[in-house]
Amino acid sequence: MCPFAQRCLYVASIKQLKLDVRQVDLEQKPSWFIEENPEGYLPALIIRTGSAKVLIHESLVISQFLDSLPGTSLYPKGNCPIQNALNKAIIDIQISTNIEPLRRAIRMIYHTNSPNSRHLASFSRIVKTVNNMVPSGSYFSSQLFNTNQLTFIDLMAFPLIERIIAFKDLNLPYYDKLDLTNLSLYYASLSQILAISQHQMPLKRYINLRKRMQLKKYKGLQLPAATYDTEPTI
Fold first, then answer.
1. DSSP secondary structure code for residue 131 in this structure
2. In this structure, what DSSP letter does residue 173 have?
3. What is the pLDDT of residues 39-67, one digit of tens each?
4. Are 50 and 102 contained in the same domain?
5. Is residue 213, in this structure, part of any structural domain at all?
6. In the chain, how many domains are there?
7. Does the pLDDT at position 233 exceed 90?
8. In 10 A of CB 157, how many CB atoms?
């Protein structure tokens, strides 16, 4: 249910990495979780090499680490190290500049049911930018590199785009006159990729999670995820 955990799972799945995945109920954190991860970071990755143990967190950092492991790189490769470094920089700056702001857009939907003009303008600007980056539902690489292939930015963006799509039919003021054609096609296309679809959640779960937040009944993601198949009671 966490978009940032999904990022890491998508990368591991695309690269066919084997991880020991352990889900955590954030309302009732288990003792092993606190012992291994005292600060409570999520998502978090523990790497054990011999007697050493390293804990890393932040979805981008974990995902980049996983991509650095053997297997096909999710960053486009050029003909020389400089080109490879440049391709990575292009993707990373686009994630920082245009994808990460989607967090703010989603937060507004979750927490602000009566947005003011500033909220609406900010949401519209953020979503329009990303919608224009995937013309006709193409991958981000189509505009960045004039190719159409799955790259690292797609896996970082998709969980956030998925939530924008989840709320589009709720008649929220955020979506008034907002064109989501490209993002809807993009969502449908990537949902056909097995490495992604096996970690997806039904969109209604995100909708019911939002309802819990609106009713002030949210204290952290609960397990099992099927908890969010039903609407909260008032």
1. H
2. G
3. 989 999 999 988 899 999 999 999 999 99
4. no
5. no
6. 2
7. no
8. 25
Distance of CA 3 to the CA centre of its chain: 4
Contacts of 20 (CB under 8 A, 6+ apart): none
Report the distance separating Cα 73 and Cα 151, nearest Å: 8
The CATH number of residue 137's host domain is 1.20.1050.10
Domain containing residue 42: 3-68
Helix, strand or coil, per DSSP, at residue 52: strand
CA distances from 136 to 100, 182, 203 (A): 22, 5, 22
Q: Per-residue pLDDT tens for 107-130?
A: 999 999 899 999 999 999 999 999
Residue 146 CB partners (closer than 8 Å, separation 6+): none
Q: Using CB atoms within 10 Å of the CB of residue 69, give its burial: 0 to 12 exposed, 13 to 18 middle, 19+ buried.
A: exposed
**Under 8 Å between Cβ of 119 and 106:** no
Q: Is the pTM of this model over 0.85?
A: yes
